[in-house]
Amino acid sequence: MKKLLLVAGACLLLSGPALAQRNKTGPQGAAAGGHAEGASATLERCDEPLGTVGVVEEQSGDWYRYLTSDLRLPSTIPLIRMMIQQSNCFVVVERGRAMQNMMQERALADSGELREGSNFGKGQMVAADYSMNPSINFSQSDAGGIGGMLGAFGGRKLGAIGAVVGGLKFKKAETILTMIDNRSGVQIAAAQGQARKTDFGGGIAGWGGSGYGALGGYTNTPEGKVLAAAFADAYNNLVRALRNYEAQEVQGGLGKGGKLKVGN
Q1: Are 137 and 174 in contact (CB under 8 A)?
Q2: Which keywords accompany this UniProt record (predicted)?
Q3: Domain ranges in the chain?
Q4: Is the dihedral of CA 228, 230, 234, 240 positive or negative?
Q5: Which of 11, 69, 192, 231 has the most other CB atoms within 10 Å of its CB?
């Protein structure tokens, strides 16, 4: 019985990474201006940008706390920004932490500390036409029972395998990207994406005592790869929808009372 479980556990461990390699559809490579290097072949691309966009996260949401505390993954913003630039569908503008550095340089210029000709005068920053907001819905798995069973049967040997299998954090991730017009506040588009888990997760931290944090990132952890693929799916769906975009019209004009009237 122990031998059978050991073989089964080993097969599970080996099959996960293989599946992850075969299903490598998430963001990868690099981007510089309108040029993409090593981007996923499945990423939608545009012949020219549709406008400028800033990416913002709702960092007070439950999904963000689970992402950063339980999964120990970083912000989704760099991941999404790279996808956007590789697609050439929007020009990305900074609206995150680097804004502090941008304003600091301007403050230094105003104080006279920067060299002459540094050219940090007013009127150079590019407006963000749109804001893109990501969110995640995690579908929990019941993988802990598998790990517990292996540990109970096999002691230390099977317990090690059980730690890996039991480390499955979720079986499916659903992501949503919404895009808002910054001038009017009108939602321009929204798209959902999803991906299923194809590898084993946080239990790997038990090996070698290095800790899960040492594996962090969206390209080298199972959970990260699933989330990256789900966001790529959502972004592709968003771009496809925008290709057929039609502005919504309200009789009498947007925000001027609407057609649903209340009684006297």
Answers
A1: yes
A2: Signal
A3: 2-93+128-243
A4: positive
A5: 231
Q: What 3-state DSSP class applies to 91?
A: strand
Residue 211 token pair: 């800790």
What gap in Å lies between CA 143 and CA 54, rounded to an integer?
37
What tokens appear for 140 in the block?
């929990």
Handedness of CA 191, 131, 89, 249 (dihedral sign): positive
What's the CA gap between 258 and 101, in Å, rounded? Answer: 43
Q: How far apart are CA 84 and CA 78, in angstroms?
A: 10
Determine contact, residues 28/21, Cβ cutoff 8 Å.
Answer: no
- For the chain, 264 residues long, the average pLDDT of each consecutive 10-residue run is 50 45 59 85 94 95 92 92 95 90 92 92 93 90 44 41 48 93 97 74 31 48 87 96 95 90 84
How far is the C-alpha of 108 from the C-alpha of 132, rounded, in Å?
A: 31
Burial of 13 (C-beta count, 10 Å sphere; 0-12/13-18/19+): middle
